[in-house]
Design brief:
The protein is of the alpha+beta class. It has helices at residues 16-27, 42-49, 144-157, 176-184; strands at residues 3-9, 31-38, 52-61, 72-80, 83-93, 113-122, 125-133, 164-168, 186-187, 213-217, 221-229, 237-244. The protein contains four helices and twelve strands. α3 links the parallel β7 (125-133) and β8 (164-168).
Length: 245
């Protein structure tokens, strides 16, 4: 018995209609973890996929800017077709009562950071899926704020017996944050993959060679048939089959 999982940073609504939804409908996942989702698009996504989700905001995109259109609350969406026995979240940077203005004062970390998780049941077995959109740094360098937020996120993760952890970690493989995660969890992105940035769709229009999107597992969980798929968003989609050892 296994569960089909897809994780993807969808870059707001830029690719939603023509790339993201057709891709998800074609691949037919049972669990989907999305980053950079507008709350206003959640009903459309849920209806198209036939899934129910939990949306948690990270920022309020309430003004026109070079990154995203002004469409309001923006954050993480955790979706599934399966029976949900637990759905929760915890902010590890910022507070729930204060949703920041997106990129306020041109600060790319002017947003809350949150870990969102669901425990789903399939054929009498339970699986804990979690996802996040981690702290950003320029050129993939490790900064003090990443170190601080990693410690806060890790305190939450340590409360889980085992977990399947996905997301946009904004911290390249081979550097401190990704390495620390790899010490506690199995890094399931194939080692021959050199980037999870889709350089054809990314606004930087550069050859960015960073594996920043992850699929980590611990304990009883195993990821197989893991692939990264381009042509969907500015980040590649991470596709995996999750089973128990």
């Amino acid at each position: 018995m296994s569960i089909k999982l897809i994780s993807l940073n969808i870059e707001g609504n830029k690719h939603l209609e023509d790339r993201v939804l057709p891709f998800l409908l074609k691949r037919k996942p049972e669990v989907v973890t999305l980053q950079e989702v507008f709350l206003s698009d959640v009903p459309k996504i849920e209806e198209a996929l036939g899934m129910n989700g939990i949306f948690i905001p990270m920022a309020d995109v309430n003004y026109e800017n070079e990154h995203l259109p002004a469409r309001g609350l923006w954050g993480i969406l955790h979706l599934t077709k399966l029976n949900v026995v637990e759905a929760s979240y915890q902010y590890y940077y910022g507070v729930e009562e204060e949703i920041p203005k997106f990129f306020a004062n041109q600060d790319p970390n002017s947003m809350n950071r949150v870990l969102v998780w669901q425990v789903v049941e399939k054929e009498g077995q339970f699986y804990r899926f979690a996802t996040t959109h981690f702290t950003w740094s320029k050129d993939g360098q490790t900064i003090d704020l990443q170190k601080q937020t990693y410690q806060s996120m890790n305190e939450i993760l340590k409360t889980f017996p085992d977990v399947i952890l996905t997301g946009d970690f904004n911290a390249p493989r081979g550097r401190e944050i990704f390495t620390n995660l790899s010490k506690s969890y199995t890094d399931n992105i194939p080692q021959d993959i050199t980037t999870t940035i889709d350089n054809n769709l990314h606004k930087a229009k550069a050859n960015i060679q960073f594996v920043v999107d992850g699929c980590f597992t611990s304990g009883e969980y195993k990821a197989s048939e893991v692939e990264v798929v381009d042509g969907v968003s500015d980040h590649m989609a991470v596709v995996a089959t999750i089973s128990k050892l």
